[in-house]
Amino acid sequence: xxxxxxxxxxxxxxxxxxxxxxxxxxxxxxxxxxxxxxxxxxxxxxxxxxxxxxxxxxxxxxxxxxxxxxxxxxxxxxxxxx
Length: 82
Description:
- By secondary structure, this protein is mainly β.
- It is built from no helices and five strands.
């Protein structure tokens, strides 16, 4: 396979519901690193919630709009900030 330079762009919105919850969505369009492969298009919805001063959680669902993208992806994360 022949490789190529790639570029990507993202457009999104974020809404701060309150001091503990943030939600939003993102549209992504990026080139494949392989020549002659259609651009990868995805749309995502996400949320971040702060449980207390240190613990937080993230959820992200992504849907592939193009044949070159994965159909569905779900990420769930729990984190601790110092």
